């Protein structure tokens, strides 16, 4: 159900922002903020993908490039 | 507590290593391994265990050459910033996947074995929540906590394997290699991908060993890996002795063995103990992976405090587990087929390149050794085994700036991150005062300290 997924996302994202907001407030350097922001953007992308069940490209789609070679090795070893 | 100043003893490091290697693999490895290698599964484990020892050997070699430097710092020094960044980004793809895979594995186990109607996110969210809070607390907290949990887990597994003795049929172990040597390599290929190549992660943790305990580090780590391999072989052999050829049909063999245990009609259905052991083992492994990944990213992007990244990394792992997991079939396909090649390319190969470069360039570039390290200072905290979390030299020598002494892998990244700088070689910042204090305290002046 969409509302269930959005609730999960709200809990997860909200929890991280709340916790880090309290513990890291004004303690992060510029570089730390950039890297933190980059990871959060990535998380937001995956979160929206999960919430709307869109099946956007993810890590496995990239790693899937190794599938033909992996399958070939698997076939050789399986005999 | 500032995690940058935390150190642990070599024994605690070996315990972390043991729980990391054994935590989830003891449940997940035997089933698919026996499916591939049959009765020679234990031979495959010994073969891939050999590669595990080789990987550990490389890490210990690098740690001996550069005791206060993490894998990323060493790579930056050996290969330069650009190649390190490229290798690091590739490695990160697997590390992100790994933390999600461990937790999704637990979720799958719980759904398939016990709580069939519960959504996956309930398990993954709770495990990531606890793991991230533990990782945020630092390596000292992790080492102390995991010592106790490891004992509980190991005792539980031993109890189950011992109580299952009446169900063992040693005749099922034969013949050992009915289809020749190829299935042995097939099984070794699988176990190379999981769990042995993951030893790589400890390249980021070895510098946290307290200086006084570094001498014993190789011995403790090698024994830990040996015990872990032995335990995996034992579980695999016991599984074959109980189920024979049908062991390949069952993904959670230790859990199934526990189901069969019946002792004097009093002790029955103790599989929940194995469920508990799996959750604890996976929680510990997830915590270590989360800590390492945060530290990896911090060193790669030259950030001082890696604890800042723990929560967003945990969040990304949680969401990755939700979006990438489409079905059990696709998941097992990735784990069993793609994993070995993926890990070989992004973990093993970069480590091999760095190690070979360090070995070839050995005469020209000296790292700090145990006799030449400058004074270090850490927070004096009693560890569980009586060793202080502080560098033992702080009490004897003039204290230096904790960040300048290079004790913590999160030390000043201007000194730790720049390849070829004099301060990076011995892990000390450009602060003259601390270097002079360190050498005045008794360590001989190191010729490499002025070389770049």
What does this structure look like?
The complex is a heterodimer of chains A (79) and B (452). Chain A is mostly helical. Chain A has one domain. Chain A is 78% helix and 0% strand. Chain A has helices spanning 2-23, 30-52, 59-63, 67-78. In chain A, helix 1 (2-23) runs antiparallel to helix 2. In chain A, 19% of the residues are buried. Chain B has 452 residues and is mostly helical. In chain B, 62% of the residues lie in helices and 1% in strands. Chain B is built from 17 helices and 2 strands. Chain B: Its main location: membrane. Chain B: Belongs to the amino acid-polyamine-organocation (APC) superfamily. Spore germination protein (SGP) (TC 2.A.3.9) family. Chain B: One of its GO terms (cellular component) is membrane. Chain B: It is found in: Membrane.
List keywords for this structure.
heterodimer; A: 79 residues; 4 helices; B: 452 residues; mainly alpha; disordered C terminus
């Amino acid at each position: 159900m969409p509302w269930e997924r959005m609730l999960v996302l709200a809990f997860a994202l909200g929890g991280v922002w709340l916790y880090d907001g309290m513990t890291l407030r004004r303690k992060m350097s510029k570089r730390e903020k950039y890297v933190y922001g980059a990871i959060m953007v990535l998380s937001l992308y995956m979160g929206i993908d999960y919430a709307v069940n869109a099946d956007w490209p993810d890590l496995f789609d990239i790693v899937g490039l190794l599938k033909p070679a992996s399958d070939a090795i698997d076939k050789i070893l399986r005999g | 507590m500032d995690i940058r100043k935390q150190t642990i003893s070599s024994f605690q490091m070996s315990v972390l290593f043991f729980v990391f290697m054994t935590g989830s693999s003891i449940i997940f490895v035997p089933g698919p391994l026996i499916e591939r290698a049959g009765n020679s599964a234990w031979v495959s484990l010994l073969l891939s265990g050999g590669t595990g020892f080789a990987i550990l050997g490389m890490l210990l070699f690098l740690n001996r050459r550069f005791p206060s430097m993490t894998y990323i710092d060493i790579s930056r020094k050996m290969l330069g910033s650009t190649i390190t960044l490229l290798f690091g980004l590739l490695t990160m793809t697997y590390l992100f996947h790994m933390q999600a895979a461990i937790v999704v594995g637990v979720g799958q186990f719980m759904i398939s074995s016990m709580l069939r109607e519960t959504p996956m996110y309930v398990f993954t969210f709770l495990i990531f929540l606890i793991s991230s809070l533990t990782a945020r607390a630092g390596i000292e907290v992790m080492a102390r906590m995991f010592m106790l949990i490891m004992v509980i887990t190991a005792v539980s597994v031993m109890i189950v394997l011992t109580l299952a003795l009446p169900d063992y049929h040693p005749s099922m172990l034969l013949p050992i290699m009915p289809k020749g040597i190829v299935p042995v390599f097939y099984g070794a290929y699988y176990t190379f991908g999981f769990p042995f190549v993951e030893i790589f992660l400890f390249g980021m943790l070895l510098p946290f060993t307290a200086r006084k305990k570094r001498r014993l580090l190789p011995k403790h780590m090698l024994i830990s890996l040996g015990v872990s391999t032995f335990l995996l072989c034992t579980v695999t052999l016991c599984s074959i002795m109980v189920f024979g050829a049908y062991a390949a049909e069952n993904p959670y063999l230790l859990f199934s063995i526990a189901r069969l245990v019946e002792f004097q009609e009093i002790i029955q259905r103790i599989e929940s103990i194995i469920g508990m052991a799996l959750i604890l083992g996976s929680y510990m492994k997830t915590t270590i992976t989360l800590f390492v990944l945060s530290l990896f990213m911090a060193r790669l992007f030259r950030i001082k405090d890696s604890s800042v990244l723990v929560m967003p990394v945990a969040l990304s792992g949680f969401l990755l587990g939700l979006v990438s997991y489409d079905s059990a079939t696709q998941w097992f396909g990735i784990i069993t087929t793609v994993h070995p090649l993926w890990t070989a390319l992004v973990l093993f190969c970069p480590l091999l390149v760095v190690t070979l470069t360090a070995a070839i360039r050995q005469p020209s570039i000296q790292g700090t050794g145990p006799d030449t390290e400058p004074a270090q200072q850490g927070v004096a905290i009693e560890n569980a085994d009586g060793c202080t979390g502080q560098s033992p030299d702080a009490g004897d020598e003039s204290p230096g700036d904790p960040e300048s002494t290079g004790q913590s892998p999160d030390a000043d990244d201007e000194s730790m991150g720049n390849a070829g700088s004099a301060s990076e070689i011995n892990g000390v910042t450009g602060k003259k005062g601390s270097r002079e204090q360190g050498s005045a305290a008794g360590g001989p002046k190191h010729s490499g300290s002025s070389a770049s």
